[in-house]
Amino acid sequence: MKSNFSLLSKLLILQYLSVLCLSQDFDFFYFVQQWPGAYCDTKQSCCYPKTGKPTADFSIHGLWPNYKDGSWPSNCDPDSVFDKSQVSDLISNMEKNWPSLSCPSSNGMRFWSHEWEKHGTCAESELDQHEYFETALKLKQKANLLKALKDAGIEPDDEFYSLESISDAIKEGTGFTPGIECNKDSAHNSQLYQVYMCVDTSGSDLIECPLLPKSKCGSQIQFPKF
Ligand code: U2P
């Protein structure tokens, strides 16, 4: 009787531990897209990828696991490094939609390694490496920011638009309120830099953000040409 009990309790403990390991350990994702015109139009400037100047569209910065209190996990699994062979079928799509604009000019591998190792490894309970990159690429199609903005008459033409009109246009186009991040061009104008959308922990659906990142934009912001 006693040994039956101890076997049962061991099994229960094992089951509890396996649930702990498999359950997701973050609350939602930020899916962050950047406007290349704003990345490049700063004092620091940018370098086009080896494949050439990216198309004038928003590109992916990252898919970041986050907690509801505004903090986030990072570098969760030092044993899992970026492995190009696991995403070979996605590379041309990544070159187009997830280019790196930092200097010196690159082919994207360093940027993708950084994003996988810093952020992707913290979502391994939900998405393996291939699923992580594939999920981000699919989300970009769901959250077509340039179309949403253009449909509202907001174009990357160096003009200034109200922050509210940009946010409203994205809400109208995607169904969800975005977080907007600005940076400053060399003349210190506040410009549209990154857009944060929130995604459920499986990576499949956009959701309303549990917490919007604080916007440090002015009320009128420039949408720079690229
Ligand atoms: O904001 C500066 C950098 O901090 C990281 N970041 C920011 C907000 C957040 O919710 N999660 C997060 O990771 C980003 O780092 P990166 O991925 O670029 O190394 C962001 O650029």
UniProtKB/TrEMBL annotation:
GO terms for biological process: RNA catabolic process. Keywords: Disulfide bond, Endonuclease, Hydrolase, Lyase, Nuclease, Signal. Coiled coil: none annotated. It comes from the Eukaryota. GO terms for molecular function: hydrolase activity; ribonuclease T2 activity; RNA binding. GO terms for cellular component: extracellular region. The active site is at residues 61, 115, 119. Residues 1-23 form the signal peptide. May remobilize phosphate, particularly when cells senesce or when phosphate becomes limiting. Belongs to the RNase T2 family. This is Uncharacterized protein.
